[in-house]
């Protein structure tokens, strides 16, 4: 049963001593009243009803219930002493038998199995001792009823303890799962941020490099060849719009409210002719060869191979020199995809091969991560005969 926060039941759960004290007081008053009413009047009743000594023993036994949650087993043993004294002096005991049942339930509900069994044995021994002191064999049906009631109280207490332990285990498991889910979420967010950073770097580095080259060309021919300058400025405008469109698609995933954003649409190997045309317009004499029948590539490999070509051509445009040429060769085989980008420029100063004074960029790291992610093999370095090359193999099998 669920307890509403702020309700009297919830308050009593947080202040158990108050509820137990009220229970002890009720038992004491009811026991004294019953002893005064029935003492010596009913057949077979003890000869003494209640006096100061008998009332004191009854109250002492009942008030122990107020501290039942702290020392239940000790109080159970202590409660049997005044009850045995009442029986030995032939006093009416009232409802003190309920005190033993309440303490037996508390031991079974709040302590381990071994101690609860000892408590049941102590209660049985006390009852047997009381029967002996009263010098009455009693009715066997009465003894059986008391035994069954005591056993039922013990079983209920154990059931409550097991249920409480099961609930605590469920709560602990839920907390562990919640912590694991939060850790997975943080890891996924970190991975997503890293992926977005790589995508943004690839987009910005490529388009800004092309726009820079186009702007430099427009500045040189602005006075002598206005038409060529106008074409260069038009290309810069188109390149800027393309860059903004791609960046909106990438950063859009960060602005989704509770929905899973997708980095779509993403370029692939089918967009290589457009990429090569853009590089030609920027001044790099680039050529593209595609060998073999182009299969349907996995989306991750498709994007990774495209970004590799884009980064390599951008590097050639920026660092190979004004008269450099670049070649892109894509070979589709049954089990793997081969991508080879090379140029005949001076090279050696870009992100791929940095000199001592160059600051490390993200291009080399991003390409190595992309290729390694799909189990590929990457080679980056000087080209035989001059220039620079990037060669990658992507396996197409699991």
Automatic annotation (TrEMBL):
Catalytic activity reads: ATP + protein L-histidine = ADP + protein N-phospho-L-histidine
Q: Where is the Histidine kinase/HSP90-like ATPase domain?
A: 300-398
EC no.?
Answer: 2.7.13.3
Asked if the record carries the keyword Acetylation, the reply is no
Q: Which domain of life is it from?
A: Bacteria
GO cellular-component term (any): membrane
What molecular functions are annotated in GO for this chain?
ATP binding; phosphorelay sensor kinase activity; protein dimerization activity
Q: Matching Pfam families, A to Z?
A: DUF7134, HATPase_c, HisKA_3
Q: Which SMART domains match?
A: HATPase_c
Q: Which InterPro entries match?
A: DUF7134, HATPase_C_sf, HATPase_dom, Sensor_HK_TwoCompSys, Sig_transdc_His_kin_sub3_dim/P
- What's the top EC group for this one? transferase
Membrane-spanning residues where? 17-37, 49-67, 103-128, 140-157
Ordered alphabetically, the record's keywords are: ATP-binding, Kinase, Membrane, Nucleotide-binding, Phosphoprotein, Transferase, Transmembrane, Transmembrane helix, Two-component regulatory system
Q: What's the protein here called?
A: histidine kinase
* The organism's taxonomic lineage, starting at the top: Bacteria, Bacillati, Actinomycetota, Actinomycetes, Streptosporangiales
């Amino acid at each position: 049963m669920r307890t509403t926060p702020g309700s009297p039941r919830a308050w009593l759960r947080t202040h158990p001593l108050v509820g137990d004290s009220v229970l002890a007081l009720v038992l004491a008053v009811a026991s004294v009243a019953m002893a005064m009413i029935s003492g010596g009047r009913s057949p077979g009743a003890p000869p003494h009803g209640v006096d100061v000594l008998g009332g004191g023993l009854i109250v002492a036994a009942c008030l122990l219930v107020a501290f039942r949650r702290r020392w239940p087993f000790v109080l159970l043993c202590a409660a049997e002493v005044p009850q045995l004294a009442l029986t030995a002096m032939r006093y009416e005991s009232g409802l003190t038998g309920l005190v033993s049942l309440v303490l037996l339930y508390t031991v079974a509900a709040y302590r381990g199995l071994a101690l609860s069994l000892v408590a049941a044995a102590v209660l049985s021994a006390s009852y047997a001792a009381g029967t002996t002191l009263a010098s009455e064999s009693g009715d066997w049906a009465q003894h059986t009823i008391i035994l069954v009631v005591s056993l039922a109280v013990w079983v209920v207490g154990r059931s409550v303890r097991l249920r409480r332990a099961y609930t605590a285990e469920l709560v602990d498991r839920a907390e562990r799962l919640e912590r694991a889910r939060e850790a997975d979420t943080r890891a996924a967010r970190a991975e997503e941020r890293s992926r977005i950073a790589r995508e943004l770097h690839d987009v910005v580095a490529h388009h800004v490099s092309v726009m820079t080259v186009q702007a430099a060309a427009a500045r040189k021919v602005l006075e002598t060849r206005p038409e060529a300058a106008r074409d260069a400025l038009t290309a810069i405008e188109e390149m800027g719009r393309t860059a903004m469109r791609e960046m909106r698609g990438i950063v859009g995933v960060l602005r989704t409210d509770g929905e899973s954003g997708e980095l779509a649409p993403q370029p692939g190997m089918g967009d290589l002719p457009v990429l090569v045309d853009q590089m030609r317009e920027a001044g790099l004499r680039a050529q593209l060869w595609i060998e073999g029948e182009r299969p349907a590539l996995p989306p991750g490999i498709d994007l990774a191979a495209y970004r590799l070509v884009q980064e390599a051509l951008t590097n050639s445009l920026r660092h190979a020199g004004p008269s450099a040429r670049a070649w892109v060769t894509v070979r589709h085989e049954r089990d793997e995809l081969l991508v080879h980008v090379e140029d005949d420029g001076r090279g050696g100063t870009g992100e791929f091969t940095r000199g001592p004074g160059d600051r490390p960029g993200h291009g080399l790291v991003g390409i190595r991560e992309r290729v390694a992610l799909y189990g590929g093999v990457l080679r980056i370095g000087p080209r035989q005969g001059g220039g620079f090359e990037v060669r990658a193999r992507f396996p197409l099998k699991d």
